TrEMBL record:
Region feature (Disordered): 255-274
Highest taxon of the lineage: Eukaryota
Lineage: Eukaryota, Viridiplantae, Chlorophyta, core chlorophytes, Trebouxiophyceae
Keywords: NADP, Oxidoreductase
Protein name (Swiss-Prot/TrEMBL): Uncharacterized protein
InterPro entries hit by this protein: NAD(P)-bd_dom_sf, SDR_fam
Length: 274
């Protein structure tokens, strides 16, 4: 059997970072990557859960620790992100081919606490990781933001829609306020989730022209995996499996090494309006 180039020699190995990789769509994506011969850095908020997921993946794929490793990362915690980036810098600099920001939370209410939690995990975490990991990604690599069609502008109130689309830079976008009496609290199914995913999409657009990425030919895109049967998506009503959601991400990862779309929003490899 021919060993894929990425796993044949440690000096040529190119890793894919997957946040929230210990379950659901993230875990299924890790399976697809390993099947394609792509080594994985599986990131998990719980070190124990991460190690268990890696052991499962290695057993199922017939691989070893040189193809799949667990790293601790809480995307809502700046100190955790800082330690994680330090590890990437010291052990994986220029060996990362892709960063997949998959970790997220979903809250159903419109309280300030839910907004802050959603903002930290769904927006600020991916922003910090993209900014700090980008210098350690190989030139020509890619960043994937796992988003949702719930983050489409049609799911926002007119005021929030304007605020998101009119943000001219990442600093301005980061100043998004929580408007307690905004109509979204009554009209959106998951208002905090919808808003922060819309912000993630706008972040993707802004990063696509940022010299931090463009100077090294690194592309960035948002991907909607669809409504999947996972712990977050639930088992009732969701018409897609976690594997199908992961394949949607995989499609754009594969395109990033071919046609190289940049700054777009995709599902199953097809552009989505947002």
């Amino acid at each position: 059997m021919t060993v894929p180039q990425d796993t044949a020699n440690p000096m040529t190995r190119t890793w894919t970072i997957v946040t929230g990789g210990n379950r659901g769509i993230g875990l299924e994506l890790c399976k697809l990557l390993l099947k394609a011969g792509k080594p994985v850095l599986l990131c998990s908020r719980s070190p124990e859960n991460g190690r268990e997921a890696v052991a499962q993946l290695i057993k199922e794929s017939g691989g070893h620790e040189d193809t799949c490793r667990s790293l601790h990362l809480d995307t809502s915690d700046r100190s955790s992100i800082s330690k994680f980036v330090g590890t990437i810098k010291s052990s994986y600099d220029q060996q990362v081919g892709a960063l997949v920001n998959n970790a997220a939370v979903m809250r159903y209410d419109w309280t300030k606490e839910s907004f802050d939690t959603s903002y930290a995990t769904n927006f600020e975490g991916p922003l910090q990781l993209a900014e700090k990991v980008a210098p350690h990604i190989k030139p020509g690599g890619t960043v994937i933001m796992v988003s949702s069609s719930l983050g489409s502008l049609k799911n926002l109130s007119p005021k929030y829609s304007r605020t998101v689309t009119e943000a001219n830079d990442l600093k301005e976008l980061s100043k998004m306020p929580h408007l307690h009496d905004d109509p979204m609290k009554n009209t959106a199914m998951v208002p905090c989730y919808s808003l922060t995913k819309a912000m993630l999409n706008r972040m993707t657009q802004l990063f696509a022209s940022d010299p931090l990425l463009t100077s090294r030919n690194i592309t960035i895109n948002s991907v909607c995996p669809g409504w999947c049967r996972t712990a977050m998506g639930g088992s009732q009503g969701a018409h897609r499996s976690a594997e199908q959601g992961a394949q949607s991400i995989m499609n754009t990862l594969q395109e990033a090494s071919g046609e190289r779309p940049n700054g777009g929003f995709f599902r199953d490899g097809q552009p989505l309006p947002w």
